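so im writing up the methods section and need the Glucose-6-phosphate isomerase record in one place, dumping it here so i stop losing it
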Amino acid sequence: MDLAEAANLRDKIKAMYSGDHINSTEDRAVLHVATRARRDQVIKCDGKDVVPDVWEVLDKIKTFSEKVRNGEWLGVTGKPITKVVAVGIGGSFLGPLFVHTALRTEPRAMSFSKGRSLRFLANVDPIDVARALQGLDPEETMVVIISKTFTTAETMLNARTCRAWLTAQLGKEAVAKHMVAVSTNLKLVKEFGIDPENAFGFWDWVGGRYSVCSAVGMLPLTLQYGWDIMGQFLNGANAMDDHFL
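--- predicted struct ---
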């Protein structure tokens, strides 16, 4: 505790919560705490409360994942979507995989994910791609492309490979029903063939390695486990943030 006081930790924590640009190398705020803020919290970045933006995306994830999970959203051949492949690298892969590994044997989470599967694809090695898609029926599969800029070389190579896998068996129109994006670059999302309506945003004040509570983790994990489980996960993270503060 003396060391924490000597290092001025308390003021540094407050600076983070105040939206100060404490990420000095990129001159950015560091507000991953906002990605799991309660609706009534106020967390500002450059003078603007970002919590409403966060909840707009979370509400969109909840609505979308419920449609997919209850069979309202169907694949191009009319089959329900039960398999998800999340394509991302670095923080867009490790955090979500970590949480998935923890939840997959948790009894309540297991019951909510019955009959569903979630796989991750990060590596550009063709063997990895083959493993990720092995045994999956494209008619029942959704691919989530996670890339803030939609330009990350490895992720976009894998995205094109998955698109080719889907369209080879289901035709070009499959992309709209079987591919969604977590990105801020709606122009490139659209050019890729994904409906920008099916893109879920996040912000440059979320560092990649801290992004699991943003759409990066919440979209694939909510598709797998449902909002009940993942809402609880956000509440837990928020409680830890309060404790830390």
